[in-house]
Amino acid sequence: MTLSPTAANSAAADPLASVESLIEGLGSVGYIASRRIATALFMSVKLQKPILVEGSAGVGKTELALSTATLLGLPLIRMQCYEGLDESKALYEWKYGKQLLYTQILKDRMGEQLADAPNMEAAMDRLHGMGDLFFSEPFLEPRPLMKALREDNGCVLLVDEVDKSDEAFEAFLLEVLSAYQVSVPELGVISAKTPPLVFLTSNNVRDLGDALKRRCLHLHIPLPEAALEEKIVASRVPGIEARLVRELVTFVQTLRTMDLRKSPSISETVDWARALVLLHADSLSADVVRDTLNVILKFEQDIGAVEPQVVELLHKR
């Protein structure tokens, strides 16, 4: 779809003016988005709903969040999920080292502070007041979720590979995203002045709960068709010959029809294109493909299965 000059100027001024302007805006920062991707992102921003992005590794889920942050000029806060992730690592911790240091300072001065206390009750009141200081703002270490809530002008919060976290953490995350606020017992409720734009990515390691899915818009990013993949490669590898782009994308698309342990992803196609440019290749030959198969195939058994068929696969173009 070709934008008129007026529409193009509008897209440049406000990438969120429409789905078309968002597609153009993402393209300007190097992310070639399909209309389905741009529509889901547009609705996520306008409805202030998190977006759950699913798909196989390497299809551009994380890159979508990074590109959106760049396009909108917002800080990116990333939280990498893993088994055993808990609230203290995701929300906040207390600076124990600093607390210990101040405890030692307090201990050295405790005698003079309590010397004029009229009785034990008064002394305990003073100690209690000093103790409260250790659980105040200067001793707080915010983690990604709290940092995102505290960005006054908003941010992009990337909760990467949420399917690797435990179900208990998923429930906690749902609570935070429902109201964009958290409660810290010592400080009270912390609410976001501007709700963050939230991306959750999943490689489908485990099924996510229905409650979290209901809270989010859903987007599945499949492996692209050849035409879209050619655009992605050309965008990501400046100066690459158009002929080479067509040949390598066709070869990769053919590999994806084979029974491999791991088919090449988009990121591996881009890496292969960069490797071929580095080797000054302007077209695919059997020798060049054999020398660089390890860039797009990550298991030796896959390389062993493809290598004898390289000439035949090249002739299928």
Describe this structure as you would to a colleague.
With 317 residues, the chain is of the alpha/beta class. The protein folds into three domains: 163 residues, 3-Layer(aba) Sandwich (Rossmann fold), CATH 3.40.50; 49 residues, no CATH class; 90 residues, Cyclin A, domain 1, CATH 1.10.472. Helix content is 53%, strand content 12%. A five-stranded parallel β-sheet has the order 2-5-8-1-9. Strands 3-4 form a two-stranded antiparallel sheet. Strand 6 and strand 7 form a beta hairpin. Helix 1 packs across helix 2, helix 11 packs across helix 13 and helix 13 crosses helix 14. The longest helix has 19 residues. The two termini are 28 Å apart.
The dominant shape is elongated
- Kindly give the count of domains: 3
The CATH topology of the largest domain corresponds to Rossmann fold
N-to-C series of helices and strands? HHHEHEHEHHEHEHEEEHEHHHHHH
Query: What is the architecture of the largest domain at the second tier of CATH?
Result: 3-Layer(aba) Sandwich
* Helix proportion range: 40-55%
The low-confidence parts are 1-11
Strand adjacency order, main sheet: 2-5-8-1-9
Strand percent estimate? 5-15%
Q: Which CATH class of the largest domain?
A: Alpha Beta
Mean pLDDT: 84
Structural Rg: 26 Å
How many beta-strand runs? Answer: 9
Structural class: alpha/beta
